[in-house]
Amino acid sequence: MKHIIKYLSVLLLFTSCALFQAEKTETKDLLPRETDVPAWRIKSAPVNYDSSNLDSYITSKESLELFKTYGFEVMSVCRYANYSNTEKEILIEIFRMNSRLNAFGIYSMERPDKPSGSDVCDWSYSTDTGVFAFIDNYYIRAKLPVPYKNLQKDLKPFFNTIYRNICNTGKPDDSLKPLFSLFNNNSALTLSYSIQGEPGIPVLKNIFLKDISFSGSEKTIFFAKRKSGYEASSEYSNLLKDKDYPFILSTAEKIRIAFHKINDNKITFIALYKEWIFGVIDAESLKTGEEIIYFMHNELETY
């Protein structure tokens, strides 16, 4: 009997902890309270959405489909007003995605082409309408109905609180961080993750894309690491068989390299090395394309 009571006590303890942790990870619990941001008051109570009613908040079919593609789970939204200046308002939206990779993906897909960096938190950028960031499995948008000066200064306490609340649920996953420093550019602002692929190379899905400067001009490179060399090799072989987007194999040694000529000034290269599939979308010549492939190979070897 004592053993049964002891077992039930332990089970109850772990069940309580699990319930507590589950509650702490609700997006509404990550929103700043008024005591966290003393200069601000909550103008409207937090509202929660999940996949069953997200379309009542995000009315654009294209945006709605994008969020679902990137593993949307739940979100909370709350509006704050400034005590001393009632015209200043901030709308905080916290989206929980099903993985850190997908949180980064939706963040990168909504990001403008040339964003301005923000110092409110790591991996954030600013626009005229607000500040946008991803932290762990969360995509955060701080939007302004009316833009004003000193925006980032006002937003810092909000993001500090959200980050602290996320940390209270467990240490944030930084597994993507090494990717940001690949190819001579330590920034999340030039990297994106596309589930659907890229128009420049429609045959390849679930890839990272990055704009780099090479030999004095901008190039768009792509790369993906598969679970094994066998999986990468099988996918690469299937890509070469695609009749709608044919590639010509030029090298089949340590690095397998193939290219697809779009026009006289634009050639797409795709290469295979171990678990990596990578290449450049817009090389202007065969020579430049191969130079970029070997540059990328050297970087990926040290990853």
Could you describe the 3D structure shown?
The protein is an alpha+beta fold and 303 residues long. The chain has 2 domains: 2-168, Protein Transport Mog1p, Chain A (3-Layer(aba) Sandwich), CATH 3.40.1000; 177-301, no CATH class. Helices cover 32% and strands 33% of the residues. It has helices at 2-24, 27-30, 61-69, 100-110, 151-168, 177-180, 229-240, 286-301; strands at 40-50, 72-82, 89-97, 116-117, 124-127, 130-135, 138-143, 191-194, 207-214, 217-225, 248-252, 256-263, 266-273, 276-283. The strands form 2 sheets. It has a 7-stranded antiparallel β-sheet with strand order 1-2-3-7-6-5-4. A 7-stranded antiparallel β-sheet has the order 8-9-10-14-13-12-11, with helices on both faces. A hairpin with a 2-residue loop joins strand 6 and strand 7 (138-143). The protein starts with a helix and ends with a helix. The model is unreliable at 1-24 (pLDDT under 50).
Which descriptors would you attach to this protein?
303 residues, alpha+beta, Protein Transport Mog1p, Chain A, 7-stranded antiparallel sheet, 33% strand, elongated, disordered N terminus
Please provide a brief summary of the model:
With 303 residues, this protein is an alpha+beta fold. The chain has helices at residues 2-24, 27-30, 61-69, 100-110, 151-168, 177-180, 229-240, 286-301, and strands at 40-50, 72-82, 89-97, 116-117, 124-127, 130-135, 138-143, 191-194, 207-214, 217-225, 248-252, 256-263, 266-273, 276-283. The strands form two sheets. It has a seven-stranded antiparallel β-sheet with strand order 1-2-3-7-6-5-4. The protein has a seven-stranded antiparallel β-sheet with strand order 8-9-10-14-13-12-11, sandwiched between helices.
